Amino acid sequence: MIYVISEAEDVTTNYVLEWLLYYKKDFIRRNFQDVSTLNFLELSNDTLDIKIDELRKVEIKKIWHRRARTRFTPLSLRKIPSMYSYLKKEEEILVKSIENILKKDIDYIGSFQKEDENYKIDYLLLAKKVNLKIPDTLVTTSKEKLYLFFDKHASIITKDLRYPIRVNSENFKITSAGTTVITAKMLSEMKNNFAPSLFQERIDKQYEIRIFFFKDKLYPMAILSQNDESTSLDYRNYNNLKPNRNVPVLLPSKIEEKVINFIKSSELNTGSIDLILSTNNEYIFLEVNPQGQFDWVSKNCNYYIEKDIAEYLIN
């Protein structure tokens, strides 16, 4: 049996499951919107046993953790914000522990824990360790240190340390901020100290590269974002009227080897890696998303990733 953890609205999960249906393979799908029943997790000096709804360790061959996580807290308790803010933290610790236990006996692809603990600094250090080039990076709360970093580079940018946000003061809406260039005017108007923030040198690029990976297989795609002023800084500043062209790309064997070493060292078995090819012909690591969308990579490059994933799950 194949067990799938996802979200109800995730269409990429649907595409993979359609292939499982085509191959006439049984699976169970549990969405984040559902509530699972934890019958028990029993520990003793002699035994370890878990019963979660329809999930029985002896019956599950593989788990594909595509999106989100399992939830156990009843809906009635989630409607009480003051209580659920505490219960959610308790539940997340439980979910991570169960994930770690299941990984010991089951082929477990994907991870809520890795997604929840997706720390950019850690992965930048790991990329550097496997000899991937990274942008010069500064994390500071000091305007004085930022001025020195600003003077060192022709141009610098800022992005989130972990979660991308933009705060709209009118209705306090938080959305993705992407990447922002820091100007001299912005710097002069900053206070002497501010919240911890990440800054990087701005690197002129030929194009961006999104690599979806599943186990040891890489699916690299070039994003020709430099052809459009609105996306030249960051392709996530989407131009829906004139989308970027996205095409398959071959990585040099040495870069591919370093990327695979990064994946192994990170203990990730699926996700998306962002690189850029600079105008100096250097491949530079930016970040990794431990879940990462793959539908657009598959369709633009005719990779049929969803078919490959389904075939891995059934073999």
Attribute tags:
single chain, four-stranded parallel β-sheet, five-stranded antiparallel β-sheet, globular, alpha+beta, D-amino Acid Aminotransferase, Chain A, domain 1, 10 helices, 315 residues, 3 domains
Brief account:
The protein is of the alpha+beta class. The protein has helices at 11-22, 75-78, 81-103, 112-116, 120-129, 143-152, 184-189, 253-266, 295-301, 305-314; strands at residues 2-6, 27-31, 38-43, 48-52, 62-65, 107-109, 137-142, 156-159, 166-168, 173-175, 180-182, 193-201, 205-214, 217-223, 246-248, 270-278, 283-289.
Walk me through what this model shows.
InterPro entries: ATP-grasp (IPR011761), ATP-grasp_RimK-type (IPR013651). Keywords: ATP-binding, Nucleotide-binding. This is ATP-grasp domain-containing protein. The chain folds into 3 domains: 2-116, no CATH class; 136-201, no CATH class; 205-289, D-amino Acid Aminotransferase, Chain A, domain 1 (2-Layer Sandwich), CATH 3.30.470.20. The protein has helices at 11-22, 75-78, 81-103, 112-116, 120-129, 143-152, 184-189, 253-266, 295-301, 305-314; strands at 2-6, 27-31, 38-43, 48-52, 62-65, 107-109, 137-142, 156-159, 166-168, 173-175, 180-182, 193-201, 205-214, 217-223, 246-248, 270-278, 283-289. The protein is built from 10 helices and 17 strands. It has a 5-stranded antiparallel sheet. A 4-stranded parallel sheet has the order 2-1-5-6, sandwiched between helices. By secondary structure, the chain is an alpha+beta fold. It is globular. Helices cover 32% and strands 29% of the residues.
